[in-house]
Amino acid sequence: MSIEKLSAELKKGEAFLIVSPENRRYLTGFDSTDGYLFITSSNAAFFTDSRYIEAAGAKVSGCDEIILLKSFKNQLPEYAEKNGINKVYTEAERLSVKQFSELSKAFGCEVAAKKADEAINAMRRSKRDFEKQRIIKAQRIAEKAFDHILGFIREGVTEKEIALELDYFMLRSGADGLSFETIAVSGKNSSMPHGVPGRKKIEKGDFITMDYGAVCDGYHSDMTRTVAVSEVSSKQAEIYETVLRAQLAALDALAPGVSCRDADLAARNIIEKAGYGACFGHGTGHGVGIDIHEAPTVSFRSEQILETGDIVTVEPGIYICGEFGVRIEDMVYINDTVCENLTKSEKSLIIL
């Protein structure tokens, strides 16, 4: 169906050339590190090398031909010429300058950008039900990992041990992979939004921020929770409750037709009024799907409008350099009227 939609956007003599693994998987259902999807106004062909040709024949959907690729520089231009193609649109956002230059040199016709990115990004943004279900499946594994890690965390274990335990639990529980390198940072290190887990040992009074996710059937989940060990100071409790109020305000604001900027400001205004505006530097959220970051972007810089079918994160935070940080993140689905929270883990302050 997605290939048919792209094909319908082309005039005779035009083609889409899809190179990136993510978009190839989205459009054909087939995951591989090598391949080219060539779509014209009347047909579609999938080119791949000998490592994947048998699997492609069994799994690629929506294509008229599966072609063994021996020479990109010869076969694709020849295929374009045979189909009367005089203009090829490809993915500027996912290609290096070198790759785009090589494509331009290979074809004996105009190679252009932007149209492919715009068309595919628009399709990928609105999640179909099976995509939503795959994301929920991945999220449930991540939530089980959170429940498990609460019994693992104690004084003396290291950040790296916590991250590895989360990773191992998710993979053992059915995840195909990890959404990204797991973040597990504690104490002063938690003031770094994307800090790297190290050998620091967990101490009494530490906040521990864990940002992680699972991949199932090609789709990602993403969640963040901050927990404390043994005790918290009044300042820690204040910051945590401020972040939680900000997150709940953003969740209440999310609905189709709402600007991403306004959704961001719902959280940001609460943090600013509490006096910590300078301690919240990143956006409130982002789309999630085959990529861990995709459209739309929930940010004070964004001009996008939320639409039915969006799946986005809601993750405000406060980070006080040299002291600690707090972030709370849920993933939500924008339905016809409001938002459906896909994240079920507890987010009131947990003191272990």
Topology (elements, then pairings):
Layout: H1 2-8, E1 14-18, H2 21-28, E2 36-40, E3 44-48, H3 53-59, E4 65-68, H4 72-82, E5 87-90, H5 97-106, E6 110-112, H6 115-125, H7 129-150, H8 159-172, E7 177-178, E8 183-186, E9 207-212, E10 214-216, E11 219-220, E12 223-228, H9 234-253, H10 260-273, E13 285-287, E14 294-298, E15 311-314, E16 317-320, E17 324-327, E18 330-334, E19 339-341
Parallel strand pairs: 1-5, 3-4, 5-6
Antiparallel strand pairs: 1-2, 2-3, 7-10, 8-9, 9-12, 10-11, 13-14, 15-18, 16-17, 18-19
Helix pairs in contact: 7-8, 9-10
Protein described:
- This protein is an alpha+beta fold.
- The chain is built from ten helices and 19 strands.
- It has a six-stranded mixed β-sheet, with helices on both faces. A three-stranded antiparallel β-sheet has the order 7-10-11. Strands 8-9-12 form a three-stranded antiparallel β-sheet, with helices on one face.
- Strand 16 and strand 17 (324-327) form a beta hairpin.
- The longest helix is centred in the middle third of the chain and has 22 residues, at 129-150.
- It starts with a helix and ends in an 11-residue tail after the last strand.
- The model has no long low-confidence stretch (mean pLDDT 96).
Uncertain segments: none
Question: What is the arithmetic mean of pLDDT?
Answer: 96
Distinct helical segment count:
10
Tell me the strand percentage band: 15-25%
| Helix-strand makeup class | alpha+beta
Strand order of the largest sheet: 4-3-2-1-5-6
The biggest beta sheet, please? Answer: 6 strands, mixed
Distance between the termini: 49 Å
- Rg, Å, rounded: 23 Å
Shape: elongated
What portion of residues is helical? 25-40%
The count of DSSP E runs of length 2 or more, i.e. the number of strands, is 19
Question: N-to-C SSE series?
Answer: HEHEEHEHEHEHHHEEEEEEHHEEEEEEE
